[in-house]
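Translate structure to sequence.
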């Protein structure tokens, strides 16, 4: 027993030290539970109302439904043309992730592994670009896209999303790639590998957590983005799910049960993705924020 106590004591001290000297307490658990309930309550009410009729929402807006009416989801799916919206969103999200990986990955590798001049100036420029509001680019970008023939095309919207996500992604990926030992580069070059082989076969596979984090951030941003989608797409057949839902909610403002059902349909993919990827996503952000 004494030996077990001796073995456990360093772990206990380390845990207390990691939490700043404060271990788990009933007060901390209570606060966390309250915060979780506050965050989950709107989503719970949304799910409840998606199963109700419009009349029941008026009489019981916050409580659970008297019965589960799955017909709301089928009607919202059909009336909102959500199948087409999900297809367009899938194309936009996939294109945004691939484009961001290509652009941000190349730039981050150059900043992290190559001896480029004016590195600090480039990083400062990226920080400044991130701080600028995207609304200031809409008008000049609109006229440029008209001249280039990219208006009302999914490709034009994908290019915009890649450009919006690349500065932050470059800075985040750089923090991952900087932490990789340079001895790996030197060993690969001694074996005859060129720069492309070093980047694609050695460095970038090791930095896959960073690419995963960047892909999730850019993909989720493209999935829920509304401002550029509304202004740069006109054809209803090209509308992503966010714009389709906006038009649907404006046309069926009195049918709150259908609007809530459509909202649940849109949120479900995000919840599933978060449940499967939350550990890697949070670990990736934490690692990226503590390096470089």
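Result:
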């Amino acid at each position: 027993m004494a030996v077990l106590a001796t073995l456990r004591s360093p772990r206990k001290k380390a845990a207390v030290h990691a939490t700043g000297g404060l271990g788990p307490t009933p007060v901390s658990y209570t606060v966390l539970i309250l915060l979780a309930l506050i965050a989950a309550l709107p989503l719970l009410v949304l799910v409840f109302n998606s199963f109700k009729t419009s009349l029941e929402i008026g009489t019981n807006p916050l409580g659970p439904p008297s019965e589960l009416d799955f017909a709301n989801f089928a009607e919202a799916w059909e009336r909102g043309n959500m199948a087409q919206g999900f297809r367009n969103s899938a194309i936009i999200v996939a294109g945004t992730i691939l484009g961001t990986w290509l652009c941000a990955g190349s730039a981050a590798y150059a900043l992290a592994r190559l001896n480029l001049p004016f590195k600090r100036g480039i990083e400062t420029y990226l920080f400044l670009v991130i701080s600028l509001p995207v609304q200031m680019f809409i008008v000049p970008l609109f006229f440029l896209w008209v001249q280039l023939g990219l208006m009302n095309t999914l490709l034009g919207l994908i290019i915009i999303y890649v450009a919006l996500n690349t500065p932050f992604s470059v800075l985040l990926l750089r923090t991952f790639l900087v932490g990789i030992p340079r001895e790996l580069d030197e060993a690969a070059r001694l074996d005859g590998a060129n720069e492309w082989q070093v980047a694609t076969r050695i460095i970038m596979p090791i930095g896959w957590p960073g690419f995963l984090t960047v892909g999730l951030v850019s993909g989720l941003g493209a999935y829920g983005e509304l401002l550029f989608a509304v202004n740069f797409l006109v054809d209803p057949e090209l509308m992503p799910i966010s714009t389709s839902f906006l038009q649907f909610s404006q046309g069926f403002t009195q049918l709150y049960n259908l609007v809530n059902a459509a909202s649940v349909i849109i949120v479900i993919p995000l919840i599933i993705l978060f449940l499967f990827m939350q550990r890697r996503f949070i670990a990736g952000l934490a690692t990226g924020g503590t390096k470089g």
